[in-house]
Amino acid sequence: MFRSVCSVAVLSVALAGGLAAQKPKDRQTAKAPKAPKAPKGPPPAAGAGPRMGKKGPSAFERFNHMSPDERQKALDRLPPERRKKVEEQLNRYNNLTPEMRSRLQAFNQLPPEKQNQARRLFQQFGQLPEERQRTVRQEFDTLRNMSEADRRARMNSDEFRSKYNSQEQRMLSNLSGLAPPPE
């Protein structure tokens, strides 16, 4: 999908149910299906299929940076199912706030192993009751804005330990480990 320089901002988007919470299987199925040989005509646009998780710009990035005419021509070359998925991704992305876009871009800047770790944490987070999700999300927002020393002190406090069960504590600790120190 997208690439950027910040490595934590996307975590709160995923916690809030943003696009970054996409499961690895979803990313794999996002690849263009192998279509039967196309009838004669111009070949598909270079990079019309996504390259999720590979170096270089993804198909989504290329589509997103095309002029409207170029995008329409490239979309016209895609199989209907793939076209629908790409259009949905573009619409979802275009409806994000600038802050959420930045966070999503940050997620894609994480190394693959950290992205996978974040996905596992997001899945665990999604299994929490809604009320606990709000509480854990608020704590994460607080922790990610702290220095490493302040985070450690907070997570070792009696208040923190009494407020969160062991699973939530591990989740917050691991999520905080993905967050860079504040600037």
Q: Note the run of SSEs as H and E.
A: HHHHHHHHHHH
Number of domains: 2
Secondary structure tally, helices: 11
Low-confidence stretches: 1-54
Task: Summarize the topology.
Blueprint lengths: L8 H7 L8 H6 L29 H6 L3 H9 L3 H15 L3 H12 L2 H15 L3 H15 L3 H8 L2 H6 L2 H13 L5
Helix pairs in contact: 1-6, 7-11, 8-11
Any overview of this molecule?
This protein has 183 residues and is an all-alpha fold. It has two domains: 9-109, no CATH class; 128-178. Helix content is 61%, strand content 0%. The chain is built from eleven helices and no strands. It has helices at 9-15, 24-29, 59-64, 68-76, 80-94, 98-109, 112-126, 130-144, 148-155, 158-163, 166-178. Helix 1 crosses helix 6 (98-109), helix 7 runs antiparallel to helix 11 and helix 8 crosses helix 11 (166-178). The longest helix is centred in the middle third of the chain and has 15 residues, at 80-94. The chain is elongated. The two termini are 26 Å apart. Residues 1-54 have low confidence and may be disordered.
Descriptive tags:
183 residues, mainly alpha, 2 domains, 61% helix
Write a compact overview of the structure shown.
The protein is mostly helical and 183 residues long. The protein is built from 11 helices and no strands.
